[in-house]
Specification:
Number of helices: 7
Radius of gyration: 22 Å
Distance between the termini: 47 Å
Number of domains: 2
Strand content: under 5%
Largest sheet: none
């Protein structure tokens, strides 16, 4: 916003309008999220500006406010899910390395493709593995 020379008092409105416009464009979720991350990165607000931003959102027409909030909620949920998956994945890989030593890149890539539920299953199954062959066999079945 400094590059655009937006006045400080207008910053909350600019951000709200950008996100509202994005919500009304009805882009696919992936594109919308990329643009949303860009907006969030380049239109950072101070705490005081955030309060004004929330007031501007509250002043939008109900359908516009709802669409904007729904879009932002889906981004936050997706971000939490990605964080959860990454954390579980890191834990399982650390457990495998501690138990069996270094593992190949191809095994790590297979683990990267697992869902959160599968990572949970693998985390429990690790207790029954005697060697890396057991891990490879489990991954082949999942």
């Amino acid at each position: 916003m400094t590059q655009m020379q937006v006045a400080h008092e207008d910053r909350p409105k600019v951000k709200a309008e950008c996100l509202h416009l994005l919500a009304t464009l009805k882009l696919n979720p992936a594109k919308s999220r990329v643009i949303g991350v860009f907006i969030e990165s380049y239109l950072k607000l101070t705490a005081a500006e955030n309060k004004l931003y929330e007031q501007v959102l509250a002043e939008l027409a109900p359908e516009g406010r709802e669409a904007t909030m729904e879009m932002m909620t889906s981004w936050h949920q997706a971000g939490r899910q990605e964080g959860l998956q990454a954390g579980k994945e890191d834990l399982v890989i650390r457990q495998i390395r501690r138990r069996f030593g270094d593992v190949s890149t191809s095994l790590i890539q297979q683990i990267d493709r697992l869902t959160v539920e599968q990572l949970n299953e693998l985390g429990e199954a690790l207790f029954d593995f005697a060697n890396l062959a057991d891990l490879k066999q489990w991954l082949a079945g999942h």
